[in-house]
Design brief:
Number of strands: 14
Order of helices and strands: HEHEHEEEEHEEHEEHEEEEH
Helix content: 25-40%
Largest sheet: 7 strands, mixed
Strand content: 15-25%
Strand order of the largest sheet: 3-2-1-4-7-13-14
Radius of gyration: 19 Å
Low-confidence stretches: none
Shape: globular
Number of helices: 7
Length: 269
């Protein structure tokens, strides 16, 4: 990957951290992926400058992000442990802000996530956050999901019935009630994700399998997310619809773009 792409990731991550991780932030969600590495790098710089809350707690979304937090000398806690921390205040009620990467982001800040097979924990942490911020390089910025990301929707499934779930996904039709297409292909194509440098399938941090479900462009992300989740054995779908508040994109020319959902921009006009 070119150094310009890596620099664009770094720029987006640093800008998002500088805006949102203020000394008032006590609980911070840390996402997963290559761009998040730069976010933690910036957190370490701020820590060394005494610009972070001294009692900051970071909530990881994967084995990778927990390693990053630990290596940076930051305090980590699992999501369910927040309620028993800070007993004088009755425990933390929520995460102040979560910063996470994305595989693709559309004009409404719906996102495809799960390229790193961590989207179950990522969605749990995002859902428990007061603010959810995405960071990525400009290659991930699209008008519609599926325009640029061609590796399918990551779907975490139970290993007990992955073949059955795969067949059920492939029997789904793009056109549901109302005769409106939810996605580009007439029917999905599901593939079991295979591991690299390991024989057999990818196994998630939760002990499950990943099906990459190809549907082409996604015209209605919330509907597709809910449609897939209706199948028994589907644990989580890598479509994050209506969750993100902001998205930061680094460009190869060194500039940074910050977006909010297109519908929110219209309200401000």
């Amino acid at each position: 990957m070119s150094s310009l792409v890596e620099q664009s990731k770094r720029s987006a991550a640093f800008a998002a951290v500088d805006k949102h991780v203020l000394p008032s932030v006590r609980v911070l969600g840390i996402g997963s992926g290559s761009t998040v590495v730069y976010a933690v790098d910036r957190l370490l710089e701020l820590k060394n400058q005494n610009k972070l809350n001294p009692d900051l707690v970071c909530v990881p979304t994967s084995f990778q992000s927990k390693q990053l937090i630990t290596d940076a000398g930051l305090r980590s806690a699992d999501l369910d442990d927040l309620s028993i921390l800070d007993p004088e205040q009755g425990g933390f009620k929520s995460i102040d802000v979560t910063i996470d990467g994305a595989d693709e982001v559309d004009s409404e800040l719906n996102a495809i996530k799960g390229g790193g097979a961590a989207h179950l924990r990522e969605k749990l942490v995002a859902n428990a956050s007061n603010k959810f911020v995405l960071i990525a390089d400009s290659r991930k910025d699209s008008q519609l999901l599926g325009e640029k990301w061609d590796k399918g929707i990551p779907v975490e499934v139970s290993p007990l019935a992955w073949r059955t779930i795969s067949r059920q996904l492939e029997r789904m039709c793009s056109i549901q009630s109302g005769a409106v297409s939810l996605f580009e292909l007439q029917a999905p194509v599901a593939q079991l994700r295979q591991a690299v440098r390991k024989a057999g399938p990818v196994v998630t941090d939760n002990g499950n399998f990943i099906l990459d479900v190809h549907v082409g462009k996604i015209y209605d992300p919330p509907a597709v997310e809910q449609l897939f989740k209706m199948i028994p054995g589907v644990i989580e779908v890598g479509v994050f619809s209506g969750m993100a508040d902001e998205a930061w994109f680094g460009n190869e020319d060194g500039t940074i773009a910050c977006r909010i959902p297109k519908s929110e921009m219209k309200k401000l006009d």
